[in-house]
């Protein structure tokens, strides 16, 4: 039975190979060269379309984050720069932690992080005006997104090992993690700045 299955599989791959190797006999050289250009351009167009989706997402994220940046930077523009610097350091540290750990050590975190994110959303909807809940949600959101950096980094590496090399979508995953961390850090620095002002006053 196993031998029959292996023979049938070999026949399938052999037929596929013959389809491609027989093309030079079926098509003239000019036609083959033209089709190479056509399919090469098609692949490039599809790649550009995916890049356009990523740039479109970046644009929408920028529109969404812009008002927060304007609000935070209205009193002290250095908060935005400090938040960006802290985010880069945090993102880099958690990325290196994921890369230096065992290749699948943190892949189990996916379900836990998604569940925690759902609980965070429900909590913020139940008590949106409580300052204690707001503070807990911000810190928990920051911790969850740091966890996603670790998880997504190892997930991307594992997908690459299995042949999934869609670098555009993988970039989007980490981009979303970075932006979320940046938002939370900005809010925390803004809250700290306001507390310091109240103490001085």
Explain the overall architecture.
The chain crosses the membrane at residues 38-61, 81-99, 106-130, 136-155, 167-189. It is a multi-pass membrane protein. It is found in: Membrane. Pfam families: Bax1-I (PF01027). The protein is mainly alpha-helical and 201 residues long. The protein has one domain. The protein has seven helices and no strands. The protein has helices at 2-21, 23-26, 29-75, 78-100, 109-126, 131-161, 167-200. α4 (78-100) crosses α6 (131-161), α4 (78-100) packs across α7 and α5 (109-126) runs antiparallel to α6 (131-161). The mean pLDDT is 81.
Number of strands: 0
Which structural class should the secondary elements be placed in?
Answer: mainly alpha
Q: Give the count of helical stretches.
A: 7
Multimerization status: single chain
Number of domains: 1
Report the C-alpha radius of gyration, rounded: 25 Å
N/C terminus separation: 85 Å
Largest sheet: none
Percent strand:
under 5%
The helical percent reads over 70%
H/E topology pattern = HHHHHHH
- Uncertain spans: none
GO molecular function: enzyme binding
Protein name: Bax inhibitor-1
Family: Belongs to the BI1 family.
Main location: membrane
């Amino acid at each position: 039975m196993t031998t029959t299955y292996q023979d049938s599989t070999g026949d399938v791959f052999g037929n596929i190979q013959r389809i491609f190797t027989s093309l030079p006999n079926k098509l003239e050289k000019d036609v083959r060269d033209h089709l190479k250009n056509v399919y090469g351009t098609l692949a490039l167009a599809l790649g550009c379309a995916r890049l356009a989706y990523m740039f479109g997402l970046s644009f929408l994220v920028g529109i969404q984050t812009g008002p927060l940046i304007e609000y935070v930077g209205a009193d002290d523009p250095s908060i935005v720069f400090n938040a960006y610097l802290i985010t880069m350091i945090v993102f880099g540290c958690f990325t290196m932690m994921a890369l230096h750990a065992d290749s699948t050590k943190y892949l189990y975190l996916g379900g836990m992080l998604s569940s925690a994110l759902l609980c965070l959303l429900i909590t913020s909807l139940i008590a949106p005006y409580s300052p204690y809940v707001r503070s807990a949600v911000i810190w928990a959101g920051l911790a969850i997104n740091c966890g996603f950096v670790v998880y997504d980094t190892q997930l991307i590496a594992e997908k690459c090992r299995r042949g999934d090399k869609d670098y555009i979508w993988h970039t989007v995953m980490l981009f979303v993690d970075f932006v979320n961390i940046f938002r939370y850090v900005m809010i925390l620095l803004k809250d700290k700045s306001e507390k310091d002002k109240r103490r001085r006053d």
